[in-house]
Amino acid sequence: KLGDGEYTFQLIACNGEGQCNILPVEISFSIDEPLWKKWWFYIGLSSLLMIIVNYVIYLRTRRLKKTEVLLRGMVEEKTQLLQQEKEEVEKVKTQLEVKNKDITDSINYAKRIQEALLPSKNMILDKLPDTIIYYRPRDIVSGDFYWFAETADTYIIAAIDCTGHGIPGAFMSLIGSTLLNEIIYDYQFTEPAKILSELNEKVIKTLNQKTNINSSYDGMDMSVCSISKDKRTCLFAGAHRPLYLINEHGLREIKGSPLSIGGDLKEGKKLFQEHTIYLNKGDMLYIFSDGYSDQFNELGKKFTTKRLKAMLLEINNESIKTQYHAIKEKFESWTGNGHQIDDVLIIGIRV
């Protein structure tokens, strides 16, 4: 294959006898340079490529600008929606804060009412100075409460655990306190078993638990002690709650009856067992709700009555003040950063 350029073709002819012409015949011709080798072709091709590239860039840029405008519009729309939602959330937040404050103020007011209607610690300590009252509501108001009354010959003290906690428990505590005052001061009952039996009837009647099919199963578990003023004897009866007596012989658990106050719509008149305990100087009596022993630690382990007994055995010879702080510190260290699950009440009395 010949390339482009000038060519001369020389031809020498010979006959059959081998005679050839002396001078060759010359034929000159040229092959033109192909189009793609011409300088103007490269310039044109480069220009065409530049035009194509620029056009592609133009189309790409135009599409990106359209996309940018579309996205900017979407962002602005989303921003407006988010701003509206933020304003709505802030509005709801403000409303909730106002409602929460109103509710908290109402609960604090309910707490003051509860404190006014329940016996004060100072009144109890004035009559029974060697007494521990570790009282720790789970919420602002409590379903656990302590109760105290004095008659001519006895001091009556009780630890009551109402159904629930918070506001429902607090309402039950006010009902219980009012009925106990009526039973002791109006009916002159001083025996714990009679007090529990009468309280059971009155709670059922007050809450309409016998006649109303829609009535609640709310009730109370409690321990009641009637201590003679000479501190020689203690009458005890319990509704699902025990009494611990600790002395030089160790810990003695006096179990309450397996009955609750109220709550059982099918139950007839309940009879509670009463125990007579003879006391010696230095003996410790403990009555309590189940909140302390049921408390979980951060690992989900329950404190249990076994640990409660061990703790009380360990500290019972200490002063009342020391015992109180030991009970408090143990509960707080056990709970840690966990959540208190129930109201807590422990009453300890040194004879």
List key phrases describing it.
5-stranded antiparallel beta sheet; Phosphatase 2c, domain 1; 6-stranded antiparallel beta sheet; alpha+beta; 13 strands; 351 residues; 6 helices; 2 domains
Overview of this protein structure:
The protein is an alpha+beta fold and 351 residues long. It has two domains: 83 residues, no CATH class; 231 residues, Phosphatase 2c, domain 1. It has six helices and 13 strands. The longest helix is centred in the first third of the chain and has 79 residues. It is rod-shaped. The N and C termini lie far apart (131 Å). The model has no long low-confidence stretch (mean pLDDT 91).
Shape, principal axes of CA atoms: rod-shaped
Estimated structural class: alpha+beta
Number of strands: 13
CATH class descriptor name of the largest domain:
Alpha Beta
* CATH architectural designation of the largest domain: 4-Layer Sandwich
Provide the domain count. Answer: 2
Radius of gyration: 49 Å
Estimate the mean pLDDT confidence.
91
Largest sheet: 6 strands, antiparallel
How helical, in percent, are the residues?
A: 40-55%
Counting DSSP H or I runs of 4 or more residues, the number of helices is 6
- Cα-to-Cα separation, first versus last residue: 131 Å
CATH fold label of the largest domain: Phosphatase 2c, domain 1
Q: Give the percentage of residues in beta strands.
A: 15-25%
Q: Output the CATH homologous superfamily of the largest domain.
A: PPM-type phosphatase domain
Uncertain runs are: none
